[in-house]
Amino acid sequence: MDAPRLPSLFNLVALETVDSTNAKARRLAEKGPDETPEGTFVWAMEQTAGRGRRGRDWHSPKGNFYASIVLRPEVPLKDAAQFSFVAALAVFDTMGSLGPPGISVTTKWPNDVLISGRKAAGILLEAQGGDGDQLPEFLIVGVGVNLMSFPEDAAFPATSLAEEGAPILPPEFLGVFARHFLAWTRLWVDEGFDRVRKNWTWRCDQVGQEIEVRLGDRSLTGVFKDLDENGALILETEAGIETVQAGDVYFLASGLDA
């Protein structure tokens, strides 16, 4: 498998097949920072047990992009969770760089990237240790992108870059994504989450629109007003403002679930 050279921060672990890049990254990270330093980048051509949020299966055939990055951020876990937005911006910019002119890429709270309103990428954060204000032992940022194929029978409408006119191979996506991820990480470190939050919000075309947020035991309907200083969704409902930490968003205006 040919792999591009990545910025020197990253230590690439390239695999043909893996159960899950997040699971592999966790096994490596548990060996400690000396053996698995920050920036260890696990990349595989296919996954046999790919996972999304809330334990959902992630369709993982060859041809798509599957990667997980081990980070050891010296910030509380609640702040480290902001890497979901950092990764989404990196995916957004990579799609914009490699896609055809006019490709319609948007972000979706809390951790997806869409093309033409359909899911093309998802991000899964997992941490070891830390709780609220405590520092985690490590953080894993998992990224899956539909490059060449997508699940047509998924619960949520999906698409791929190839379907949208941009057939991109995984090594090419890897090299560009790594550079964008590093750039957004540096901005987050240097200037804080507010710049990241504003850039993410600008790329989310559902801000200002009516949405439904499903929370497991209940649903909320209202207008997506903004993100708060920690990345939670601010929803204006008939009963007042709700701040949502986690949930699944449905776009009422378009009729699409993503």
Q: Flag low-confidence runs.
A: 254-258
* SSE sequence, one letter per element: EHEEHHEEEEHHEEEEE
Count of strand segments: 12
| CATH class membership of the largest domain | Alpha Beta
Count of helical segments? 5
Strand order of the largest sheet: 1-2-3-7-6-5-4
Please indicate the percent range of residues in DSSP E strands (runs of 2 or more): 25-35%
Looking at CATH, the homologous superfamily of the largest domain is Bira Bifunctional Protein, Domain 2
Instruction: Please give the alpha-carbon distance between the first and last residues.
Output: 32 Å
Count of distinct structural domains: 2
- Name given to the CATH architecture of the largest domain: 2-Layer Sandwich
Please name the CATH topology of the largest domain. BirA Bifunctional Protein, domain 2
Q: Averaged pLDDT, please?
A: 89
Structural class: alpha+beta
Instruction: Please bin the fraction of helical residues.
Output: 10-25%
The major pleated sheet works out as:
7 strands, mixed
Shape call: globular
Q: Return Rg in Å.
A: 17 Å
Fold and architecture overview:
This protein has 258 residues and is α+β, with helices and mostly antiparallel strands. The chain folds into two domains: 11-202, BirA Bifunctional Protein, domain 2; 210-251, Roll (SH3 type barrels), CATH 2.30.30. Helix content is 24%, strand content 30%. It has helices at residues 21-29, 77-80, 83-98, 170-191, 193-202, and strands at 11-18, 40-47, 65-71, 105-108, 112-115, 118-128, 138-145, 210-214, 219-227, 233-237, 240-244, 248-251. Helix 1 (21-29) links the parallel strand 1 (11-18) and strand 2 (40-47). Helix 3 (83-98) packs across helix 4 (170-191), helix 3 crosses helix 5 and helix 4 (170-191) crosses helix 5.
